[in-house]
Each structure stands twice: as structure tokens, then as C-alpha cells.
Amino acid sequence: MFDDTFEHAAWNDTDETRVVLFVDFVRPLRQPVKALNQLVIKAIGFSPFIQDARRRHEDWERRFDRLRGA
To answer: Distance (Å, rounded) from C-alpha 30 to C-alpha 16?
Structure first.
């Protein structure tokens, strides 16, 4: 785990797919920065990228439930 607020670089020099799990930690910030941070995190949830990932995950869960007979 690392703090990506610091400038960094990463490479995938393999033929394999690189998978990255992003986790947003809500930091204890003072207003008005706290409100801005909350707004940005909420807005990211409405982005097409996140909505597509959510739909694909929900589809996976439905298929999994059908396979296990739920």
C-alpha cells in the first residue's frame, strides 16, 4: 500500500495484465477542504468508468448466484 498523493511511477514489464486495487481513505481534513474531498469522492462514483465496473460486478454476482443455486 502506498500514498499516491506523492509523485510516483510504475511499470508492468511483463506480458501479464496488471491489476490495481484503488482504495480511497477518507482523511481527517478541515473545512472547506473536507467538503471538497467528499464531493470529489462522490463524483468519482458517478463516473462512467466506475458505473461500468459496478455493472460488471453486479453481473458477475448474478452469474455466481445462479451457479450456486441461490
So the answer is: 42
Bigger pLDDT: 70 or 61?
61
Q: CB within 8 A of 37, min separation 6: which ones?
A: 26, 27, 29
Cα–Cα distance, 32 to 49 (Å, whole number) = 27
**For residue 48, is the peptide bond before it cis, meaning its omega torsion is within 30 degrees of 0?**
no
SS3 content of the chain, % helix, strand, coil (to 5): 45, 0, 55
Q: What is the pLDDT at residue 11?
A: 87
Check: CB of residue 43 under 8 Å from CB of residue 51.
no
Virtual torsion, Cα 24, 26, 27, 32, nearest 10 deg: 120
Is the model's pTM score more than 0.85?
Answer: no
Q: Is 26 helix (H, G, I), strand (E, B) or coil?
A: coil
